[in-house]
Amino acid sequence: MFIAAAIVSVLLALALLASAAGKLSKNPQQVENMTKLNFPVDKIWLLAVAEIAGAIGLVAGLFWWPIGVAAAIGVVAYFVGAVIVHLRANDKAIAPAGVLMLVAAAAAVLAPLAA
Predict the structure, then answer these.
(1) How far does CA 55 lie from the centroid of its chain?
(2) Phi-psi category of residue 91: left, alpha or beta, with phi > 0 → left and psi -120 to 50 → alpha
(3) Residue 79 and residue 13: Cα distance in Å, rounded?
(4) Which of 45, 75, 80, 91 could form a disulfide bond with 104, CB atoms 3.0-4.6 angstroms apart?
(5) Computed from CA positions of residues 90, 91, 97, 99, in that sequence, does the dihedral angle turn out positive or negative?
(6) Of 88, 72, 78, 2, nearest to 38 (Cα)?
(7) In 35-103, at which residue ranges do the beta strands (DSSP E only) sit?
C-alpha cells in the first residue's frame, strides 16, 4: 500500500506545485480564470501558499502518516472551496477541481494504510 500512497501523494503534490507556480508567476490564464471567478487578483498568492503547504504536507506524510492525512484533508477542503467558487460564479469548468478533490481524498485514505 505504501507504493500506492506514494504515487498518489507525489503526483498530487506535483500538481499542487505546478498550480502554485502558475499563480505566483501570475500566469495570464490563471489570472483570467480568477478574474472570471471574481477572486481578487492581489490575493492569488494566498492560494499558492495553501497549495505549497499542501504539497509539503503530502510528501512529509510519506514519512509520518498523520501529517499526510491532515494535509490531504486540507487539500480536500481547498478544492471543495474551489468547486463552490466555480459554482457560485456559474462557471462550468469544475472538473479539474473536482478530480483533484477526489485524488486528495484518496491520499487521505491511503496514508494510514501505508504505515
Answers:
(1) 8
(2) beta
(3) 14
(4) 75
(5) positive
(6) 88
(7) none
- Between vectors from CA 74 to CA 47 and to CA 23, what angle results, nearest 5°? 15
Of 44, 51, 40, 43, residue with least CA distance to 23: 44
Q: What is the mean pLDDT of residues 81-103?
A: 94
Query: pLDDT per residue over 17-49, tens digit each?
Result: 999 999 999 999 999 999 999 999 999 999 999
Other residues' Cβ atoms within 10 Å of the Cβ of residue 102: 12
What is d(CA 88, CA 59) in angstroms, rounded to the nearest whole number? 32
pTM for the full model? Answer: 0.93
Task: Give the contacts of 75 (CB within 8 A, at least 6 positions apart).
Answer: 12, 16, 54, 58, 100, 101, 104, 107
The residue written with cell numbers 505566483 in the block is 24
Cβ count near 42 (within 10 Å): 7
What is the Cα–Cα distance from 74 to 52, expressed in whole angstroms? 12
What are 66-88's pLDDT values in tens digits? 999 999 999 999 999 999 999 99
